Amino acid sequence: MITEKQKMMTGRLYKDSDPELVAERLAAQQLVEEFNATRSGSVISRLFGSIGEGSWVMPRFQCDYGYQIHMGSNSFLNYDAILMDCATITIGDDVSIGPRAQLLTALHPVEDHEARRQRFETAAPIVIGDNVWLGGGVIVCAGVTIGADAVIGAGSVVTRDVPPRVLAVGNPCKVIREL
What we know:
The structure is a single chain. This protein has helices at 4-9, 19-38, 41-47, 113-117, and strands spanning 14-15, 50-51, 56-57, 62-63, 69-71, 76-77, 82-84, 89-91, 96-97, 102-104, 106-107, 120-123, 126-128, 133-134, 139-140, 145-146, 151-152, 157-158, 166-169, 174-178. The chain has 179 residues and is of the alpha/beta class. Strand 19 (166-169) and strand 20 (174-178) form a beta hairpin. Residues 5-53 form the Maltose/galactoside acetyltransferase domain.
């Protein structure tokens, strides 16, 4: 029998109230609280699936599980970030993410009202390419890939893939020009 965690990890409909997932979120929250209190890089390396050399995360940081977050080398995650990692979040090398950014992999049933009522959800990965800059307050939605060397303006809501080497802004986020 397939577990709710296995369903989550493969992008299928799963119940977030599953005891295994609840326990894993609670364990992650303990590490998050420890990190936010101490700002210790060793806590982040225990929490994240991987983190590259020279990367750092500022507190107040929040996530669901931690182990699905992979951050490359020399990248920076500013204050008050929220990374909902029900699916994999991959952050490339040399990425700068502004304060209060949100990377949200969770999806909820839109048409199936009963499934939503019963707290079923799915998730889709987020990929942030190398040398990307996300301005403050940017929201990146589930399933989005942002190409290398792209710049996303502050406050943008990224609902679709963004190609490499562009400036994109707005809600919904749209490409303004090539870089």
